[in-house]
Amino acid sequence: MNKEDIIANKTLNETMNQPAPNYDLKPTFGTCSQCGTFHPPLAEGVKCPIAPIKTVDNKEVNINNFLSMLKNIIESQVSIKKIKDPEKLIKKLIIETTRFVENYKE
Known about the structure:
The protein has helices at 3-16, 64-80, 86-103, and strands at 53-54, 60-61. It has one domain. A two-stranded antiparallel ribbon has the order 1-2. By secondary structure, the protein is mainly alpha-helical. The N and C termini lie far apart (79 Å).
């Protein structure tokens, strides 16, 4: 064994014989009352962006999967079409989505 190996082994042995560090990994915040997950607290009166939507008959609908798919579509189209101003696309998408939802009938 060379000198470097001896030093490395000594350091390893000393490290292995030490007690494990006491990391306090508890979150500094609790569970969100709106969505049920752990995240930093929201300001008073702010709706959690990942909370489910409640329908008229009080049924909960989770739209997070839809929003994730929509994000993937936007990212894909920005890349494919080489869109230089994605913010403009997103604003247009919001306007068109709002119009669609306002005119939606079941």
